[in-house]
Each structure stands twice: as structure tokens, then as C-alpha cells.
């Protein structure tokens, strides 16, 4: 188990290796990786962003300890994986009902941010048992509409997780990054904070989920590196050291250093070091009226900056942040319902609503 830093986010050490906080050597490595990507014709890893931005390149460099060749290889592997599995198409045509069913059994954005402006996610493992029907239903929808094949090898349950990771990278992170009045605005938001509640989960349930959790962690490590800032595990049962023995083997030491197991007494004082009580769900010692399974309770700064994104008006299904020429962005509703695709601008940064 990792040791928590002595101070909260005021420290700039958490920003090392990111834009605005690069050493001269890291600046050189970034320039080298840019040139290598240009030479390889590697231009983008996401439909909503026009190019391979520096934030993405730095995530891969940090994951590979600023070894340019290793970072380039991982970028190329991810690009091939995305193309092979048609990730942009998967997200944009994802069945809306299946997407909402998948949300019930995976990590969920609360709609709030921590003290550094990073999105806060909550995952209550016990809900997998309570919503297993949803888990299977969404898998069935995907299997019927887009079965795996040699050219499309992601199995149904991981396709759901892929879509939710796309939601994180293509909506939540750029949305939080667009908010002007946040700490360290010179540094784009590229990581997330997670609360994982494992209370009321038995050893057999952990064992039954072992294979799926391992596959999910491998997917994140390979294709979404350096998107985790820290993860707090709550409600650990007495047998958890056994489970932790499995889990920590799935991650590299850097990732495990970001995981903190909190006792009941440590929960509230620790979590409020990293997020305001108003942004922490009541269940975990905060003041936020939000429970697992509810839509995001979008914070006031985001609602003020992105017109049309109020919590009570959030659209179901896949959403995408699309950058606009000259700056700004739009939230575009994608996905399909009864086989019909949608492409509707539902919110914009500022007060002008342009066509998608």
C-alpha cells in the first residue's frame, strides 16, 4: 500500500512531467517523440481531437519513463488497436441503452472534480452483483449488433469498458480541462481521481471477477496510460490482503504507488484533503447529494462555462467533446437508438451554439 503525500494538491510535484512543468531533458524528449510520430505518420488517437496533442504524448512518455522509442512503440500499438477495433465508430454508434446499462456496473463520474480540477469517479463493486442482469443485458445488445470477429476482437463486456474509457478521454477529461478557473491552468487535465468501494463484497465475488478485472487493468495500462492520479480503496474486508496480492501483480509499481487503502477512520479526513466536502458524496463523509447509479451531478463551474450541460438536462448515452477551429468546443450527443444514429450539439463552451 502506498503512503499518502504529506500535503494536498498545492504541491507541484504531482505535476512533474506535464505541460508547464517539464525539465529541459523532458522538453527534448517531447520534441523527439513529436518528430518520431510525424515520421511514422501517427497523427491522432481520438476523433474529437484534431491531432496527437502534447498532453497525450506526455502521458505515454511518463508511462515509459521518458524513453522515446518505448513511448513510440506503445503509441503505435494503441493506434493499431484502435483502428483494428474501430474505437471511434464503436463509441459513436454504441447503443444508448447498452451504454446506460454498462454504467451501472463500472466506474462512474460523479460530475465533480477534486481540488486540482481532476474528475472524481466512484466504483461500488457490490453493484456488479446487484446489477448483473444489466451487465449481461448490455453484453447481449452488443453481441447481437456487433459480434466479435477476427477484425473486431474485443469481447462484449470489454467493449462496454472501452466505451466508458472513450467517454472519459473524449468527454470528461477535455470538459474538465476547458474550465478556466482551476488550479494550474497552464497544465491540461489528463488524469482522474477514483474512489473504489469494496464493502459488502465477498471473497467468492472477488474470485469470480478476477479474470475480468485483470483484463480491464491490462486494457487501461496498455491503451490509457497515465490517466490515473490516485485511487482510494474503501471498505476493505479482513481477507483483502489476499485479494490485494492478486491485484498488485496486474499493475506496474508506478500505478500501485497511486493506490491507497483507507480504514473507516481515515476515509473522511483523507478524502477531504483532496476534494471539497461539497464535491464528495455523503456516503463517504461529504455533502454531495449523489449515489452510485445516478447521473453526474455536474458542478457549478462546468455548468456556468459549458452552456446547456446542466445536470437535469444531461442526455443519455455516448457524448463527445469536439474541439472547434479557433478554440472552444462543443458537447455532441452520439450513439444509436433503434438503429438510428444521432449527431446533436447539446452544449457549447461559451454562449454561441454552432452546428456540429
Textual characterization of the structure:
This protein is α/β, with parallel strands linked by helices and 356 residues long. The protein is 42% helix and 14% strand. The protein has 13 helices and eleven strands. The strands form three sheets. The chain has a five-stranded mixed β-sheet, sandwiched between helices. Helix 2 crosses helix 3.
How would you briefly describe this protein structure?
Residues 1-24 are annotated as: Disordered. It comes from Mycena belliarum. By secondary structure, the protein is α/β, with parallel strands linked by helices.
Secondary structure elements and pairings:
Layout: H1 24-40, H2 54-63, H3 68-85, H4 87-92, H5 96-103, E1 108-113, E2 119-124, H6 126-130, H7 132-145, H8 156-177, E3 192-197, H9 203-223, E4 228-234, H10 240-247, H11 253-256, E5 259-261, H12 264-274, H13 300-305, E6 306-307, E7 319-323, E8 329-333, E9 336-337, E10 340-341, E11 344-349
Helix pairs in contact: 1-2, 1-3, 2-3, 5-7, 5-8, 7-8, 8-9, 9-10
Amino acid at each position: 500500500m502506498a503512503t499518502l503525500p504529506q500535503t494536498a494538491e498545492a504541491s507541484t510535484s504531482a505535476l512533474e512531467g506535464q505541460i508547464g512543468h517539464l525539465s529541459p531533458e523532458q522538453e527534448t524528449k517531447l520534441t523527439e517523440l513529436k518528430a518520431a510520430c510525424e515520421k511514422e505518420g501517427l497523427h491522432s488517437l481520438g476523433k474529437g481531437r484534431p491531432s496527437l496533442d502534447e498532453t497525450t504524448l506526455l502521458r505515454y512518455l511518463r508511462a515509459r519513463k521518458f524513453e522515446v522509442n518505448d513511448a513510440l512503440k506503445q503509441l503505435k500499438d494503441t493506434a493499431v488497436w484502435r483502428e483494428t477495433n474501430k474505437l471511434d465508430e464503436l463509441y459513436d454508434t454504441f447503443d444508448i441503452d447498452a451504454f446506460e446499462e454498462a454504467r451501472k456496473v463500472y466506474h462512474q463520474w460523479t460530475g465533480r472534480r477534486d481540488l486540482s480540477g481532476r474528475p472524481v469517479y466512484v466504483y461500488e463493486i457490490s453493484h456488479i452483483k446487484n446489477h448483473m442482469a444489466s451487465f449481461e443485458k448490455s453484453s447481449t445488445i452488443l453481441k447481437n449488433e456487433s459480434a466479435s470477429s477476427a477484425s473486431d476482437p474485443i469481447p462484449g463486456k470489454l467493449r462496454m469498458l472501452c466505451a466508458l474509457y472513450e467517454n472519459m478521454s473524449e468527454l470528461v477529461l477535455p470538459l474538465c480541462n476547458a474550465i478556466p478557473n482551476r488550479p494550474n491552468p497552464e497544465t491540461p487535465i489528463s488524469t482522474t481521481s477514483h474512489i473504489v468501494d469494496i464493502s459488502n463484497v465477498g471473497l467468492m465475488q472477488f474470485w469470480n471477477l478476477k479474470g475480468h478485472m485483470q483484463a480491464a487493468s491490462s486494457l487501461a495500462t496498455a491503451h490509457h496510460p497515465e490517466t490515473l492520479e490516485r485511487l482510494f480503496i474503501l471498505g476493505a474486508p479482513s481477507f483483502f490482503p489476499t485479494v490485494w496480492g492478486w491485484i498488485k501483480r496486474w499493475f506496474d509499481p508506478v500505478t500501485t504507488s497511486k493506490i491507497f487503502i483507507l480504514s473507516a477512520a481515515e476515509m473522511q479526513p483523507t478524502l477531504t484533503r483532496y476534494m471539497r466536502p461539497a464535491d464528495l458524496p455523503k456516503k463517504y463523509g461529504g455533502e454531495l447529494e449523489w449515489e452510485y447509479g445516478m447521473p453526474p451531478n455536474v458542478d457549478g463551474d462546468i455548468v456556468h462555462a459549458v452552456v446547456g450541460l446542466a445536470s437535469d438536462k444531461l442526455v443519455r448515452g455516448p457524448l463527445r467533446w469536439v474541439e472547434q477551429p479557433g478554440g472552444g468546443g462543443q458537447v455532441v450527443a452520439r450513439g444509436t437508438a433503434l438503429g438510428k444514429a444521432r449527431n446533436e450539439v447539446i452544449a457549447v463552451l461559451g454562449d454561441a451554439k454552432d452546428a456540429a
